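lol forgot to send this yesterday, sorry. struct tokens for the thing we talked abt
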């Protein structure tokens, strides 16, 4: 078995393990959302808190993104096929953008409702059970956010990291509810804090949404990897003694992975097999050295196709 085949098998196994982790974390988050929504709804009814009932309904919107991640992970982890030769990883990007759009909708909705009801007064003084339920929601959702975000970074899942932020928005939206309910309980005339706090929270949610959506949009328009990564690819390729020059390095993201193609210049008198072996070695070196690299296409050029040193100095090898 060649080094490239071993790398491919390892990559497939890693992807399978990654998607299992993504689904496990998301299923747990979905269960927590259901339990918290039920607790907040019951506490809102018995505690006479309209804000808490509304927050319970908002918690149910998290189920949409949880289901999107769970369903999407079954598709984006599929291997390449005839119609999708580069695999299905872009589906994860689409799910990530979808979550960002849902967050924008939630942020606008929370802010609009808060602004439009600033003049309204609390109809009845909420009970302490509503305060307790809001506090439990904040602690649980912040804990789920931190766990999901850490796991998303560890397995390099943009969709999981985006879904983590949806958990945090639920925690943030419960914060003004806690302040309002507690404030209205202690000082009945302070119910306006609910609306002011909700406006502030909506701004944070919109900021988080942009941070989630922008990387996904960048990937969909094929933004390349950073210059440092491309320079590292060049240096790795040049470690093979048969490579005289590296140029026209191009990269693009497929979810959190990187697709690479590049040109290498070799001696013109080499046989086709010798040139092919050099290209295979360069590919294996890059995949082994840079975990984010999913695949490498190496074009073998004769010496007359080499770029001038002046062109290389101006960065043309980093296309």
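and heres what i got for the seq, position by position
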């Amino acid at each position: 078995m060649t080094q490239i085949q071993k790398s491919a098998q390892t990559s497939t196994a890693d992807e399978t393990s990654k998607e299992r982790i993504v689904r496990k974390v998301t299923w747990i988050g979905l269960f927590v959302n259901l339990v918290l929504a039920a607790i907040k709804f019951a506490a809102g009814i018995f505690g006479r808190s309209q804000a808490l009932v509304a927050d319970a309904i908002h918690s149910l919107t998290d189920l949409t993104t949880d289901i999107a991640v769970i369903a999407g992970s079954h598709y984006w982890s599929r291997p390449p096929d005839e119609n999708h030769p580069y695999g299905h990883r872009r589906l994860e990007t689409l799910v990530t953008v979808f979550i960002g759009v849902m967050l924008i909708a939630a942020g606008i909705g929370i802010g609009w409702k808060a602004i439009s009801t600033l003049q309204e007064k609390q109809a009845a003084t909420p009970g302490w059970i509503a305060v307790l339920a809001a506090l439990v929601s904040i602690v649980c959702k912040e804990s789920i956010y931190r766990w999901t975000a850490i796991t998303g970074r560890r397995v390099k899942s943009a969709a999981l990291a985006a879904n983590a932020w949806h958990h945090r928005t639920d925690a943030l939206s419960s914060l003004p509810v806690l302040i309002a309910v507690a404030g209205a309980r202690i000082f009945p005339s302070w119910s306006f804090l609910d609306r002011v706090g909700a406006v502030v929270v909506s701004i944070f949610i919109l900021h988080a949404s942009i941070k989630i959506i922008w990387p996904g949009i960048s990937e969909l328009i094929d933004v390349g990897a950073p210059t440092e990564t491309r320079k590292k690819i060049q240096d790795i390729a040049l470690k093979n003694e048969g490579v005289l020059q590296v140029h026209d390095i191009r990269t693009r993201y497929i979810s959190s992975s990187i697709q690479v193609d590049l040109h290498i210049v070799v001696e013109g008198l080499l046989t086709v097999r010798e040139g092919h072996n050099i290209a295979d070695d360069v590919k294996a070196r890059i995949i082994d050295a840079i975990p984010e690299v999913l695949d490498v296409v190496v074009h073998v050029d004769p010496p007359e196709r080499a770029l001038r040193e002046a062109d290389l100095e101006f960065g043309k090898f980093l296309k």
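The chain is about 70% helix and 10% strand. anyway ping me if u want another try
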